Amino acid sequence: MFRGAEATTVVLATQRFVDVVSARAWKGARFLPVGLE
Fold first, then answer.
1. Which value, to the nearest 10 degrees, does the dihedral of the CA atoms of residues 4, 7, 11, 17 take?
2. If we measure between CA atoms, which residue out of 22, 3, 15 comes closest to residue 30?
3. At residue 36, does pLDDT exceed 60?
4. 20, 2, 24: which is closest to 11 by C-alpha?
5. Separation of alpha carbons 24 and 37, rounded Å
6. Taking a C-beta distance cutoff of 8 angstroms, is the pair 21, 29 a contact?
7. CB within 8 A of 2, min separation 6: which ones?
8. Is the pLDDT of residue 33 over 70?
9. What is the pLDDT of residues 1-28, one digit of tens each?
10. Does residue 15 contact residue 23 with C-beta atoms inside 8 Å?
11. Collapsing DSSP states into helix, strand and coil, what is residue 32?
12. Quick check: helix, strand or coil at residue 14?
């Protein structure tokens, strides 16, 4: 198991990664044609 500080770092890094990927995917989706589903 992770120690407290390590677990916190991993969780924050994971959340940050998800935020960046989600934002990038949302930005890309905005430029796609509406009919493309």
1. 130
2. 22
3. no
4. 2
5. 18
6. no
7. 10
8. no
9. 568 889 899 999 999 999 888 888 777 7
10. no
11. coil
12. helix
CB 19 within 8 A of CB 11: no
* DSSP secondary structure letter of residue 2: -
pLDDT at 28: 72
Distance, in Å, from the CA atom of 1 to the CA atom of 11, rounded to the nearest integer, reads: 13
The tokens of 1 are what?
Answer: 């198991």
Beta strands of the chain (E only): which ranges? none
| Residue 32 identity (one-letter amino acid) | L
Residue with tokens 């992770």, as numbered in its chain: 2
Q: At 31, give phi and psi (nearest 5°).
A: -95, -5
CA distance 7 to 2: 5
